[in-house]
Specification:
The chain is of the alpha/beta class. Helix content is 34%, strand content 21%. The protein has a seven-stranded mixed sheet, with helices on one face. The longest helix has 25 residues. The protein is globular and about 50 Å long.
Length: 207
C-alpha cells in the first residue's frame, strides 16, 4: 500500500508539484492525499488542484497568536483526509510542540541550504555574504528545534561568479525538485530511518 502524504505549503508550491509529479508514477511508494496551506491565496493551492489533488486552506490569521489552535485544525484536517505522513514544502510557520509531537517520525521538511549551515530564513543571501563555494538544499526529519532534525539527504550546487540571490535561489530550487521526491520515498519506505525520539540523533544522510 502506498503511503498517503499531506503536503503543507505557504506559497508557490513548486516543491509540492515536484512531489505530486513523482507520485504519479505507479511504482512510487507514496500518493499525495492533500495539499494544505495556511494562506488561502497561496498559488500552490491552485497548482495542486490543477494536478487533481485535494486542496485546503486553513488561514492562520483568525487564530491570532494561538498557534496551537491553528495546528489542531490542521491536524484534524490531515487526519480527516487519511494522511499518514507529512511533507513540509515551503511552509513558513514555526511549528509548536503540539504538531511536531503529533507527527513525530512522520514529518519531513526541505530546507534551502546545506544544513547545519544557514538554518532559518534568507539562506541564499547569507550564503553569498559568507562567500561559500557550495550551497544547496537539505531534506530532514522535523524535530522540535528549527531545521535541526536528522538529515535524510542533501544536494549541493556551486556558487558561481556573478551569482546574485535570484540566480542562486533558482539553482537551489531545481535541486530541491530532484532531491525531495527521492528523500520522501526513502522516508515512507523506512530506507531513511526516522529518529527514535524527538532528540536530534545523528542519522546518516540518504543521498
Amino acid at each position: 500500500m502506498r503511503k498517503r502524504v499531506g503536503i503543507l505549503i505557504s506559497g508557490r508550491g513548486t516543491d509540492a508539484v515536484a512531489l505530486i509529479r513523482a507520485a504519479a508514477a505507479p511504482d512510487y511508494p507514496a500518493e499525495i492525499a492533500l495539499v494544505l496551506s495556511n494562506r488561502p491565496e497561496a498559488p500552490g493551492l491552485e497548482r495542486g488542484a490543477e494536478a487533481g489533488v485535494p486542496t485546503l486552506a486553513i488561514d492562520h490569521k483568525p487564530y491570532g497568536k494561538d498557534r496551537e489552535a491553528h495546528e489542531r485544525a490542521i491536524d484534524a484536517a490531515l487526519k480527516a483526509a487519511g494522511v499518514e505522513f507529512v511533507a513540509l514544502a515551503g511552509y513558513m510557520r514555526i511549528l509548536t510542540p503540539f504538531l511536531v509531537s503529533a507527527w513525530s517520525g512522520r514529518m519531513i521538511n526541505v530546507h534551502p541550504a546545506l544544513l547545519p549551515a544557514f538554518p532559518g530564513l534568507h539562506t541564499h543571501q547569507r550564503a553569498l555574504e559568507a562567500g561559500v563555494k557550495l550551497h544547496g538544499c537539505s531534506v530532514h526529519w522535523v524535530t522540535p528545534g528549527v531545521d535541526e532534525g536528522p538529515l535524510i539527504g542533501q544536494a549541493a550546487v556551486p556558487v558561481l561568479p556573478g551569482d546574485d540571490e535570484e540566480r542562486l535561489a533558482a539553482r537551489v530550487l531545481a535541486a530541491e525538485h530532484r532531491l525531495y521526491p527521492v528523500c520522501l520515498a526513502a522516508a515512507v519506505t523506512g530506507q531513511a530511518a526516522a529518529p527514535a525520539s524527538d532528540a536530534a540523533l545523528a542519522n546518516p544522510p540518504f543521498a
